Amino acid sequence: MYFLNHAATFDITNRCTYPVWATASPGEADDSTRAKLGRTNCNFDGNGRGKYESEIGDCNGLLECQGYGSPPNTLAEFALNQPNNLDFVDISLVDGFNIPIEFSPINGGGRNLLCNTPIND
């Protein structure tokens, strides 16, 4: 992890050649520690239920994840407003790799983090 001062806004931009569905980990709205994962090949109906064409990041067929999704999934993790008013971000492959992720701070308070290739390739 590295430090970013006063970071609280995350803009998610998909630069992949395929659709990616971003979702946040479940929890209270004021919970300061979160993970985002990207899901691919999603199809949902008007009730937020669906069938996946693949198992990458599946949340039991639901649009709104109740858990962290099924592996493999690349996680973008962040902890906001930690001691000394610091924010932390990291990219985790603990559940495998499914999409490339990059953190790019815009305020000059840190450096880019990038994971664009599976670690076993």
Describe it.
- The chain is an all-beta fold and 121 residues long.
- The chain has one domain (1-116): Thaumatin, CATH 2.60.110.
- The chain has no helices and seven strands.
- Strands 1-5-4-3-2 form a five-stranded antiparallel β-sheet, with no helix packed on it. A two-stranded antiparallel sheet has the order 6-7.
- The mean pLDDT is 72.
- InterPro entries: Osmotin/thaumatin-like_sf (IPR037176), Thaumatin (IPR001938).
- Keywords: Disulfide bond.
- It comes from Solanum commersonii.
SSE blueprint:
Elements: E1 2-5, E2 21-24, E3 33-39, E4 75-82, E5 86-92, E6 101-103, E7 113-115
Give descriptors for this structure.
single chain, 121 residues, mainly beta, Thaumatin, 5-stranded antiparallel β-sheet, two-stranded antiparallel ribbon, 0% helix, globular, disulfide bond, Thaumatin-like protein
Put the structure in a nutshell.
Keywords: Disulfide bond. By secondary structure, the protein is mostly beta strands.
